[in-house]
TrEMBL record:
The lineage of its organism: Bacteria, Pseudomonadati, Bacteroidota, Flavobacteriia, Flavobacteriales. Transmembrane segments: none annotated. InterPro entries: Secre_tail, Sialidase_sf, WD40/YVTN_repeat-like_dom_sf. NCBIfam families: Por_Secre_tail. It comes from Hwangdonia seohaensis. Gene3D superfamilies: YVTN repeat-like/Quinoprotein amine dehydrogenase (2.130.10.10). It holds the Pfam family Por_Secre_tail. Residues 851-921 form the Secretion system C-terminal sorting domain. This is T9SS type A sorting domain-containing protein. Residues 1-21 form the signal peptide. Keywords: Signal.
Length: 923
């Protein structure tokens, strides 16, 4: 059984480095100079100071920004993203291929089904009196629905869209409860800065069938050339309980939709859009509307506003700030359900809980009483426990990234707050201070509270039981059945709530093993597989905390289970189960033994999967090597110098790849891809004395200069001359193929074809029975082709992976297993077969197959155009690709689906040698 160890984050100070883009007359050059920021580790074992946390968040933002920004314009344009999405929807699926014989592959979910990702929205369905129906949203995972209290979830947002969910609301009016809305686009804390990075949204979406299916509200769609729509970041939604008007708290504005048009109710007078101009809105049961606006961005509007109706023509808006009510950042609101004259206001105050200065509470808490039109300041009751712990205690909110307040439905004085941690106070008028109930376990360190996760975004009481509280955090969805208990106990509801954001994944190189590993954003390193003690093939065991980074499974002799994992900015560990356990091997400078080599935010290194004694570590642009991975220490790495010294361009390494098979000094090589667009080949890498012996084999038309990010370098498993190289930036040529990679000057062919608009994130080449298949992971799903020089790319796994960002691919040639890591939809695995199938032929009868009724409640009928006979067998899968129902010999071509939960499903039938697949909705 795998040992579990939570390792404190190695925390960091950012050093800004301005890099001048190099030019190469034979290659494309950047037209806009973009600053590169480099991060160096500091304060090991400590939580971040306020300044460091801001820079830490920026580093996470920049990681994604650098991979998307168009280097010719300096922005991530909406036009680029719209074109990418449009082309993705037009791309052929394998079932639509007319000519190319591409192996048909099935994708199995590899989880984690028991762990969740960043969740900002949870709502308990008012219709289900049991309180077991909930809808929740992941910031990059989509919308999920449960009807059994979180024992299982069904994804209900479509896989052909990206849904960065930030808020969900149900219509409270009798007879209208089937109407729901969710808002998209995260404006604080992650990839939400730098001209519009990955977590900007696509407006507001509506459901009229209880959250089973959703459509975008056209009036909130943004098609501008840059991210300049206020609906690109939606902070909160609320529905007026009398008029049914929808209120949206968006960038610096609160707007109202009356069913026909949007009206601006309160807005920043200058009209400028700032992605961090956070807003909030809440409405009483009698229709009074409150709105909140961040501080410091516009003094004329910051703070809290109210209107008796929310409609400026019938109820004028007025500001209700106290004289010393001075927010310096995000402001969030919560009404007391049992006394809606009471409005609690929690806001960022500009203080720092940094223990190295004078630590202070990072937020204030005030309560407005509408009946007396007065405020009460409860800020002194916010938690400040014994001692000090950076970012943990006193009350810390990471600049408003995590900030929430909630009131117990049956007690107007029972208040719950969330920042980095969750706290409660049973009687705010009498009790001295809040007590900790979630996040980190204590103020003394960074071990997590039992069955809970830090970074609190949602605290939602059940409307049917005032003691039940649900939390949405960076670790998914959790619940407590008794918020009044002296020690609050939590249960994880992350059961098929698949929202994990992987940066890197790796599969065990040993044939037949189901051992997999992944490094995830803000959720550290997890491992999966029944062979290492996981309860199922979709369950994962969390091992290392922090932000996950590169991962590898070396299978060292005598270790039992072994792997490499780490955390942001360079920290690296080797795990050997039977001997040393965890050993830190973060490279340390020999000339300065107390100084670690600098590394990037998402630490990158590569373990040769077939010669696992060899490890290559990216210390920014310096290549470090060990040829004794089983025993390497912090001080036994060899530095092979850097790209700037050797080649005159300061590429920071973003991708490595090594030739497959037994190492051969004459034929083995290492490929290295940088962030200035260069690709280097280092022959005999285990023995090379210096990186200067590497050969620059960059494709002649690749964009050169920072940022031009090489994201994938795939070497054919049996032919070292075939290499697939990918770049991620919009506005650049992105996919290249060479068939003479071992030449001094390889010849490259541009093979983007129908993916020219895509951001390409990963690459793999597989071979089965002499047939080669090429894969690329993109910001909009996974694609393959049998020959990219002649055949367009086709989309893989549309019902499993969908349009999730495919961040990492790991191939095992010994049994042809391919592991797919996504940023928001977990990981999937497939076996590449040698069975070419052109499903456009007469054996595919999907086009001649229909289902009714659809949506269906109890029994679904299968109808076929043509005389095919009876169904010999069928299988029903959920939207995650898991089989949930199967059977044989349908004499009446009817299937009883009563046992299925509500959600979206696919039925695949076989009639003799013919196959058909259709989607249906279970209600």
């Amino acid at each position: 059984m795998k040992k579990t160890l939570l390792i404190a984050l190695s925390l960091l100070l950012i050093l800004a480095v301005v890099v001048i883009a190099k030019s190469n007359q034979s290659q494309k050059t950047t037209l806009v100079k973009i600053e590169r920021k480099s991060i160096n580790p500091t304060q090991k074992g400590k939580k971040k100071t306020l300044e460091e946390r801001a820079l830490y968040d920026e580093a996470r933002n920049l990681y994604e920004y650098y991979r998307q920004v168009n280097p010719n314009t300096g922005v991530i344009s909406k036009a680029d993203k719209n074109l990418e999405l449009k082309n993705s929807k037009r791309s052929l699926l394998k079932k639509d291929m007319n000519s190319a014989k591409i192996p048909e592959t099935a994708y199995s979910n590899r989880g984690p089904s028991n762990l969740g990702g960043r969740t900002r929205a949870i709502v308990v369905d008012r219709i289900d009196a049991t309180g077991n129906t909930l809808i929740a949203g992941g910031v990059s995972g989509g919308v999920f629905r449960t009807t059994d209290g979180g024992s299982s979830w069904t994804k209900v947002s479509a896989n052909d869209e990206i849904h960065n969910v930030t808020t969900i609301v149900q219509d409270p009016r009798s007879g209208f409860e089937d109407t729901w809305y969710y808002g998209t686009g995260e404006g604080l804390g992650n990839s939400a800065s730098k001209s519009g990075a990955f977590y900007f949204g696509q407006g507001i979406w509506q459901s009229t069938n209880g959250g089973l299916t959703w459509t975008q509200m056209p009036s909130t769609s943004s098609t501008q050339e840059v991210f300049n729509s206020r609906f690109d970041t939606v902070y909160n939604l609320a529905i007026h309980p009398i008029t049914g008007d929808l209120f949206a708290a968006i960038n610096g504005r609160v707007s109202r939709f009356n069913g026909t048009i949007w009206s601006t109710e309160v807005t920043n007078p200058g009209g400028s859009i700032n992605t961090s101009f956070a807003t909030d809105v809440t409405i009483t049961s009698t229709g009074r509307v409150y709105a909140a606006f961040s501080g410091t961005l516009d003094a004329s509007i910051e703070g809290v506003w109210t209107s008796s109706t929310g409609n400026s023509t019938t109820g004028a808006w007025s500001r209700i700030n106290a004289s010393d009510f001075t927010p310096t950042g995000r402001v969030v609101l919560a009404l007391a359900p049992s006394n809606q004259d009471k409005l609690y206001t929690l806001f960022v105050n500009g203080n720092s809980s940094d223990c190295d200065t004078t630590p202070a509470l990072e937020a204030d808490l005030w309560m407005w009483d509408q009946s007396t039109t007065t405020y009460t300041d409860y800020s002194s009751k916010l938690p400040d426990e014994t001692g000090c712990s950076n970012g943990n205690d006193p009350f810390a909110v990471q600049g408003g990234y995590d900030l929430v307040v909630s009131i117990k439905p049956d007690d107007e004085d029972f208040v719950i707050i969330g920042g980095t941690n969750a706290y409660k106070i049973a009687d705010i008028a009498v009790d001295a201070t809040f007590t900790r109930i979630g996040g980190y376990a204590t103020a003394a360190g960074y071990t997590q509270y039992a069955n809970h996760h830090p970074d609190i975004h949602a605290l939602v009481f059940s409307p049917f039981n005032s003691n039940i509280l649900f939390s949405g955090t960076d670790g998914g969805v959790h619940a407590t059945s008794d918020i009044t208990a002296a020690t609050v106990a939590w249960s994880s509801l992350n059961n098929n709530y698949q929202t994990y954001q992987f940066y890197h994944v790796s599969i065990d190189p040993d044939s037949g093993s189901d051992f997999v590993i992944g490094g995830a954003q803000d959720n550290g390193t997890t491992v999966g597989g029944t062979s290492i003690g996981a309860s199922s093939t979709t369950s994962h065991i969390p091992l290392l905390s922090g932000d996950g980074v590169s991962v590898a499974i070396p299978n060292y002799t005598g270790c039992g289970i072994s792997f490499f994992g780490g955390s942001q900015n360079g920290t690296l560990y080797r795990y050997c189960q039977n001997t040393s356990g965890y050993t830190e091997i973060t490279p340390r400078m020999s000339t300065m033994p107390d100084v670690l080599y600098p590394s990037q935010f998402v630490t990158y290194y590569h373990v040769d999967p077939d010669n696992t004694n060899a490890i290559y570590y990216a210390s920014e642009g310096t290549l470090l090597r060990s040829t004794d991975g089983a025993n390497v220490t912090q001080d036994t790495w060899t530095s092979l110098s850097d790209t700037n010294t050797a080649f005159g361009h300061a590429d920071y390494f973003q991708a490595f790849s090594t030739t497959r098979g037994v190492y051969n000094a004459l034929t083995s090589y290492l490929l290295m891809g940088g962030d200035e667009g260069h690709i280097y080949r280092l022959d005999d890498p285990q023995n090379a004395a210096n990186i200067s012996t590497a050969i620059d084999i960059t494709p002649p038309t690749a964009t050169i200069g920072f940022p031009s990010i090489v994201t994938g370098l795939a070497i054919h498993p049996t032919n070292n001359d075939i290499v697939l190289a990918t770049y991620s930036n919009y506005g650049t040529e992105s996919i290249f193929l060479t068939t003479n990679a071992t030449n001094a000057t390889p010849t490259w062919t541009l093979v983007e074809r129908n993916l020219s608009a895509h951001s390409i994130r990963s690459a793999a080449i597989t071979e089965v029975a002499g047939q080669t298949l090429y894969f690329v992971g993109t910001a909009r799903g996974l694609y393959s082709t049998s020959d990219p020089t002649t055949t367009d790319w086709v989309r893989e796994a549309p019902t499993e992976i969908g349009f999730a960002l495919v961040s990492s691919l790991s191939y095992r040639p010994s049994d042809n297993h391919l592991l797919v890591g996504t940023h928001g939809n977990g990981m999937y695995e497939t076996v590449i077969t040698d069975n070419p199938l052109n499903v456009k032929d007469v054996n595919n009868i999907s086009a001649n197959m229909s289902l009714y009724p659809n949506p269906v409640e109890n029994e679904i009928n299968l109808k076929f155009t043509g005389n095919y006979g009876k169904v010999s067998n069928y299988m029903i899968t959920n939207i995650s690709g898991q089989s949930v129902l199967h059977g044989e010999h349908l004499s009446s071509n009817k299937i009883d689906v009563t046992s299925l939960q509500t959600g979206i499903y696919f039925v695949k039938v076989k009639i003799n040698d013919k196959i058909g697949t259709k989607k249906f909705i279970k209600i």
